[in-house]
Specification:
By secondary structure, this protein is of the alpha/beta class. The protein has helices spanning about 5-15, 25-40, 45-75, 80-100, 140-145, 165-175, 175-180, 210-215, 255-265, 285-290, 295-315, 375-385, 480-485, 500-505, and strands at about 120-125, 150, 185-190, 195, 220-225, 275-280, 325-330, 335, 340-345, 360, 365, 395-400, 420-425, 430, 440-445, 455-460, 470. The strands form five sheets. A seven-stranded mixed beta sheet has the order 5-6-1-7-16-2-17, sandwiched between helices. A four-stranded antiparallel beta sheet has the order 10-11-13-12. Strands 3-4 form a two-stranded antiparallel sheet. The protein is globular. It starts with 6 loop residues before the first helix and ends in a 5-residue tail after the last helix. The structure holds zinc ion.
Length: about 500
């Protein structure tokens, strides 16, 4: 997000081409696509499982410690005793659960609503919240959601490319970028030359059915406080005044939280049942200073304060335990430095790649040569140069025809995706030509198999078991989770139909 606020992000997140739809192939694709990630997760070698278990035990111990610290240091409030005892009850099972690996949940069914008339989902995105950031500093409020809710134990897996717009729109449509159309943060339509940017609100770009549209289609209300695509008029969604805001990165986070809280003061007939809340941080800082800088620690602490403000406001209204809060990020972040560069101009002995063929350089290298130039020939010559040993860092880039990309990336079924895609190793970047600047920072957009690209998933509320850890999953599953909570029929998507029941408590 943040086209107006973060020009650096624009550069770093930039990308390629255009609209085609292939929407008709959803069902076929979803069947095989949604099962693949799960299958590969299940096939992890035992050694990895052991290692992951060890890491988890450590992580859970840390979060449990955090939860207890919270109990001791939190300020008593009218509802604190109940919440605290719940946290205490949950923290212990969570810890034992991780070591014994699982499923003795203390609850067997969803908890009844106490005050709200209908199920409500509040979907929160903290941009670029890399999985693990929650351990950078004390995060008592996020820790409270984790201890009393359901967490993806090793993080949420973004879609490829691990960029802001493609991922935010996958979260709300359940579709891979090839199907929802936002295949990059910016790209060119190969059919008419039109350019998509992060400020494009023409519905022609935004395919699929986002959650706010699904909700409104069912006669319910939705409200968005920023989310890529939410300003776009689609079907029955008209970005209505009072329930939808055009992106403005300068709105203080506190104001966003307070506005969302006010929805809970509305009469039930007016109250949105689906709400979004978006924070640019810590992505903003991550690009500038990389994931390990103290500025990130401060940004994470600030996001935690915002979650605390939200929880406090919901508690004041007596609805905290009634609201299903889903807190996610869109992708992670990895440190970059300018000695880890690959220059396209260094390939000139093999092939000249003019800058105007390149729709984005890093971390998604996307190239559309003019008609008349064979993409297969370009790929072959580029890889020949990259493997020659004569191109600086050439071994860290591999170039593909998009149809030859690993199928787990699901990055082929759209004309908008340029014919040539380069996969860059973690932390490396591709640039056109040598420059004098020498700087370090952070980036994302890489292969979604890279762990540093992972982000968080936390579900808290009546539909989520307390203290539950679930295996990592791709963010295209979230759409079905939300429609299940709201008990509405969703649109066709790439998520697995059975996923929601695997993560949510069954109805009483
Ligand atoms: Zn982002």
């Amino acid at each position: 997000m943040g086209s107006d606020k973060q020009p650096t992000n624009l550069d770093q997140e930039e990308d390629p081409p255009n609209p085609s739809t292939a929407l008709l192939s959803f069902d076929t694709d979803s069947a095989d696509e949604s099962t693949k990630p799960k299958a590969s997760a299940a096939q992890r070698p035992a050694a990895t499982v052991v290692l992951v278990s060890l890491i988890l035990v450590t992580c859970v111990a840390v979060s449990a410690a955090g939860a207890f610290a919270f109990l001791f240091f939190s300020r008593p409030s009218p509802s604190a005793p109940a919440a605290s005892s719940a946290a205490a009850a949950a923290a212990a099972p969570a810890a034992s659960k991780a070591s014994s690996s699982d499923s003795d949940s203390i609850e067997t069914t969803a908890r009844p609503l106490k005050k709200l008339q209908k199920p409500v989902v509040l979907l929160i995105s903290s941009d670029g919240f890399r999985f693990g950031y929650q351990f950078k500093t004390a995060t008592p409020n996020i820790g409270r959601l984790i201890a009393n809710g359901t967490e993806a134990e090793a993080g949420l897996i973004p879609v490829f490319p691990t960029l802001t717009f493609p991922n935010h729109y996958s979260i709300v449509t359940g579709l891979y970028p090839a199907f929802h159309g936002i295949i990059n943060n910016h790209f060119v339509d190969p059919h008419n030359g039109d350019t998509f940017t992060m400020g494009s609100h023409d519905p022609k770009w935004w395919l699929g059915e986002p959650l706010w549209e699904t909700v409104v289609n069912h006669g319910l209300k939705a409200a968005t406080y920023f989310w890529p695509g939410s300003e776009v008029n689609k079907g029955s969604w008209t970005c209505p005044e009072g329930y939808c805001r055009f992106y403005n990165g300068s709105v203080p986070f506190e104001e966003r939280v307070d506005t969302v809280l006010k929805y809970f003061d509305m009469p039930s007939s007016e109250m949105p049942v689906f709400m979004t809340l978006y924070f640019e941080d810590p992505d903003h800082q991550g690009h500038q200073v990389g994931p390990d800088d103290p500025q990130i620690t401060e940004a994470v602490a600030n996001i935690d304060r915002m979650i605390g403000r939200l929880i406090e406001g919901l508690e004041k209204r007596g609805v905290f335990e009634d609201v299903n809060i889903i807190m996610v990020g869109d992708h992670g972040m990895v440190g970059t430095c300018d000695k880890k560069l690959i220059f396209l101009d260094d390939l000139k002995s093999w092939i000249d790649i003019p800058a105007n063929w390149v729709q984005s350089h890093s971390p998604l290298l996307a190239i559309r040569p003019p008609s008349g130039v064979s993409p297969a020939d370009v790929v072959q010559k580029m890889n020949e140069g990259l493997r020659s040993g004569k191109v600086m860092n050439g071994q860290y880039l591999k170039v593909y025809l998009k149809e030859d990309l690993p199928s787990r990336l699901h990055y082929v079924a759209s004309d908008r995706i340029p014919p040539i895609i380069g996969l860059i190793d973690e932390g490396f970047k591709v640039e056109q030509k040598r420059t004098k600047h020498q700087e370090c920072g952070g980036a994302h957009g890489y292969d979604n198999d890279i762990f540093s690209m992972r982000t968080i998933f936390i579900g808290h509320g009546p539909e989520f078991a307390r203290g539950q850890k679930v295996p990592s999953f791709e963010n295209v599953q979230i759409y079905n989770v939300v429609t299940s909570i709201l008990k509405i029929q969703g649109a066709a998507n790439n998520g697995t139909a059975s996923f929601a029941s695997s993560i949510l408590l069954p109805s009483p």
